Amino acid sequence: MSTKSLCIELIDTFNDEQLSNVLQLLQSIKSIADEAADEAYCQALLKEHLKDRNENDAVTLENFAKELEIDLDAL
């Protein structure tokens, strides 16, 4: 019997009040699992970025201001 079938079989033994509690628990677990997946995805993106970044990608404040046509001396 599959895990899902066993879970359904067990759920069928609960009354409505117990099912309400089970539902709240499952929603909390799902939320935690989703957050963990999001965190893992973000960590993978950061790791990829740090691995691939090139020091030439850095822009100095002066060059950035120049691109925006801002005179830093006037500030």
Task: Give me the oligomer status.
Answer: single chain
The count of DSSP E runs of length 2 or more, i.e. the number of strands, is: 0
Name the shape in a single word: elongated
Provide a count of the helices. 3
| Largest sheet composition | none
Taken as a percent bin, the fraction of beta residues is: under 5%
Mean pLDDT score: 92
Low-confidence stretches: none
Q: What's the domain count? A: 1
H and E order: HHH
Give the helix proportion (percent range): over 70%
Spatial extent as radius of gyration: 26 Å
Which structural class matches the secondary elements?
A: mainly alpha
Measured between the Cα atoms of the first and last residue, the distance is 73 Å
Polypeptide structure, described:
The chain is mostly helical. The chain has one domain (3-74). It has helices at 3-11, 16-52, 61-67.
Describe the structure using short key phrases.
single chain; 75 residues; mainly alpha; elongated
Compact summary:
The chain has 75 residues and is an all-alpha fold. It is 71% helix and 0% strand.
Topology:
Blueprint lengths: L2 H9 L4 H37 L8 H7 L8
